[in-house]
Specification:
About 0% of the residues lie in helices and about 50% in strands. By secondary structure, the chain is an all-beta fold. It starts with a strand and ends with a strand.
C-alpha cells in the first residue's frame, strides 16, 4: 500500500484562473501489469491446468516462455486461460489464429524459447537451453550439464547434480556468448566463476528474471 495526495484542477477558460479542490489523502494498492498465456501440448499430455506459462511483464501483447519438447514435431496450442475456452491455433506455423487453425508444430526437440506477439498475431520458436559448466560439475569445462525450465519456480533447474570442490558458471546454448558467473547468489553477466567449496549432491536453480541463483546441498 502506498500513500498519495491528490487534488482536482478545474479550468473553464484561458481567461479565468483555474480552481483547485482541497488535497485528498489516499492509500492505493499497486498491481503488477503482468499478464499470461499458456501452452498446453503433447509435451505435457494436453492438460491446460499444468501447461507452461508465457509471460508478458508489462502486458504489452508480447509473451515469452520456455518449453522442453520431448521430441521433434510436437504439437501444442496457446490458451488465454488454463482451460480450452479460447485458444490460438495456426495455419502456417508462423501466424496464430484465435479460436481457429490447427495445432501448432514445434519442429525441433529440446528446450525452446517461445515468443508470442498478440499485436501482430505471430510467434517464434528458437533453441534456448541453459547449462551448468565448470570444474566442479561432471562435464568439467568441456561439457555442460543441461538445466530444464521449472514452470512452478519460473527458473531453470538441474536436480541431483553431483558437484566437487571447484567452480561453475551458467551459459546459454552450450556457448560462451552468453554466460553468467557471480557470488553469494547474485548472477552477473560474464562475471567471475562461482565457487563450490563443498562436494555433494545439489539442486541448482537459475533465476534469469531476477539474476539470482540458488545452490541447495542435499
Amino acid at each position: 500500500v502506498s500513500k498519495v495526495e491528490a487534488r482536482v484542477k478545474s479550468t473553464i477558460s484561458a481567461f479565468v484562473d483555474p480552481s483547485y479542490s482541497n488535497i485528498i489523502k489516499l492509500e492505493v494498492t499497486p498491481y503488477a501489469l503482468i499478464s499470461y498465456l499458456y501452452a498446453p501440448g503433447a509435451y505435457q499430455d494436453w492438460n491446460p491446468s499444468t501447461a507452461n506459462t508465457l509471460i508478458s511483464a508489462t502486458s504489452n501483447g508480447i509473451y515469452e516462455g520456455y518449453i522442453d519438447f520431448l521430441k521433434a514435431n510436437s504439437k501444442f496450442k496457446i490458451t488465454l486461460a488454463r482451460n480450452w475456452d479460447e485458444s490460438y491455433g495456426t495455419d502456417d506455423d508462423i501466424s496464430i489464429i484465435l479460436n481457429g487453425g490447427r495445432d501448432i508444430n514445434a519442429p525441433n526437440a529440446g528446450s525452446q524459447k517461445i515468443v508470442v506477439n498478440t499485436n501482430t498475431n505471430k510467434f517464434t520458436l528458437t533453441p534456448y537451453s541453459w547449462g551448468v559448466i565448470g570444474s566442479a560439475q561432471p562435464g568439467g569445462w568441456d561439457s555442460d550439464t543441461d538445466m530444464l525450465w521449472d514452470d512452478t519456480l519460473k527458473m531453470f533447474v538441474v536436480d541431483n547434480i553431483v558437484l566437487t570442490s571447484g567452480e561453475i558458471k551458467f551459459r546459454l546454448n552450450n556457448d560462451w556468448g552468453t554466460n553468467y558467473g557471480g557470488a553469494n547468489g547474485n548472477a552477473i553477466s560474464g562475471g567471475d566463476n562461482i565457487a563450490i567449496t563443498e562436494s555433494g549432491t545439489y539442486k541448482i536453480a537459475f533465476d534469469l528474471t531476477n539474476l539470482k541463483y540458488i545452490l541447495t546441498k542435499k
